[in-house]
Structures are given as structure tokens and as C-alpha cells.
């Protein structure tokens, strides 16, 4: 074989390898976008670099794989749903208390399922792997809960926190929760 033929083969192999690498990266990006939803964009914005964000998201996936995350049993699910309904009924008279209870109940469900309880950002990162669609609402609810004792926190903000917590709660327990006939009809 002459030198030109060898060089052409080497160039072709390099070009094929490059195409495979690019396609692989694109598929990985699509997979991460699909799995994490809006959390993907948040991670890119937070790191300022798509590759670093994707590495962070993949590290989250690996961390969750090492944990023993499980589904709730039927009796656990029913117990948590009944507790949610009971706590939500407190909202009328004590909205800040209801928000604090919702925060605690969501944490309890997470613990029961096997998510470790640590600082909030780690919790949110862990939840984002399997519940990427609702992690933003979890962050929003938590932020409102943190300032809920302040007198300037409005009832509307507290209501929003309850709605956000309910979205995550329903995702965690795997079932929609209707707290009244009126609400069930309006959905």
C-alpha cells in the first residue's frame, strides 16, 4: 500500500471516530434533557458550561444508583396521603403551619423512599434525577417555607407553596391527591 492510501485510511478512521463521538455526545445531551427536564437548563445556567453541567447531572445519576431508592408500599402510600389531606386542612386557619407541615411530610416521604436527608441543595439534586419535572417547584416551595414566618409573607405565597409541595408529594407517592370533591371536579 502506498503512503497516500494509508493516509486516506487513517483520515477516514479519524473522521468516523469523530462522527461517532459527536453523535454520542448529542444522544447523551438529549437523554439528560429528557430525564432532567428544566433542571438540565438550570444546571447549564448555574455552571455556565454545558459539559460541566452534564458531568454534574451524570454524577447525580451515579449517586442515586448507589442509593436504595424504593417505591412506597400501599399502606405507606395511603398513610402519607391521609396525612397530606389532614395537614392541608390546616391551611385555612394556619397557612404558615400547613406549609411547614407539608415541608416536613415531603421530607418524611423522601426518607421513607430512601433519599438521604442532608442540606436542601443536595436533596433537590437527588430528587432531580427521578423527579426532574417538579424539582423547580420544590425549590420554590422551600424558599417560601423558609420565609413563611416573616409577617410580609402573603397567604397567596403560602398557597403557592402548598401547591408546589403537592406537585412533588404526588410525584413521590405516585398518585394524585384530591382533598375535596370541588377540587377533584376542577381538575
Describe it for me?
With 187 residues, the protein is mostly helical. The chain folds into two domains: 64 residues; 113 residues, no CATH class. 77% of the residues lie in helices and 0% in strands. The chain is elongated and about 85 Å long.
Notable features of this structure?
single chain; 187 residues; mainly alpha; 2 domains; 9 helices; 77% helix; elongated; disordered C terminus
**Low-pLDDT residue intervals, each spanning 5 or more residues:** 181-187
Q: What gross morphology would you assign?
A: elongated
Strand content: under 5%
Structural class: mainly alpha
Main sheet attributes: strand count, strand direction, barrel closure: none
Total number of distinct structural domains = 2
Element-by-element helix/strand order: HHHHHHHHH
Topology of this protein?
Elements: H1 3-36, H2 38-47, H3 50-66, H4 74-88, H5 95-113, H6 120-131, H7 135-146, H8 155-173, H9 181-186
Helix pairs in contact: 1-2, 2-3, 3-6, 4-5, 5-8, 7-8
Short description:
The protein is mainly alpha-helical and about 190 residues long.
Amino acid at each position: 500500500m502506498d503512503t497516500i492510501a494509508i493516509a486516506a485510511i487513517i483520515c477516514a478512521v479519524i473522521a468516523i471516530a469523530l462522527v461517532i463521538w459527536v453523535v454520542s455526545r448529542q444522544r447523551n445531551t438529549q437523554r439528560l434533557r429528557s430525564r432532567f427536564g428544566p433542571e438540565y437548563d438550570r444546571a447549564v445556567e448555574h455552571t455556565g458550561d454545558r459539559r460541566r453541567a452534564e458531568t454534574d447531572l451524570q454524577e447525580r445519576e451515579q449517586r442515586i444508583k448507589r442509593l436504595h431508592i424504593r417505591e412506597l408500599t400501599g399502606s405507606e402510600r395511603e398513610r402519607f396521603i391521609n396525612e397530606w389531606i389532614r395537614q392541608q386542612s390546616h391551611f385555612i386557619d394556619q397557612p404558615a403551619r400547613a406549609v411547614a407541615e407539608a415541608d416536613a411530610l415531603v421530607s418524611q416521604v423522601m426518607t421513607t423512599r430512601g433519599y438521604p436527608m442532608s442540606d436542601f441543595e443536595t436533596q433537590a439534586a437527588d430528587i432531580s434525577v427521578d423527579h426532574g419535572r417538579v424539582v423547580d417547584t420544590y425549590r420554590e416551595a422551600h424558599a417560601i417555607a423558609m420565609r413563611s414566618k416573616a409577617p410580609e409573607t402573603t397567604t397567596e405565597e403560602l398557597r403557592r407553596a402548598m401547591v408546589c409541595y403537592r406537585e412533588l408529594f404526588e410525584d413521590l407517592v405516585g398518585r394524585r391527591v384530591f382533598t375535596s370533591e370541588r377540587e377533584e371536579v376542577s381538575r
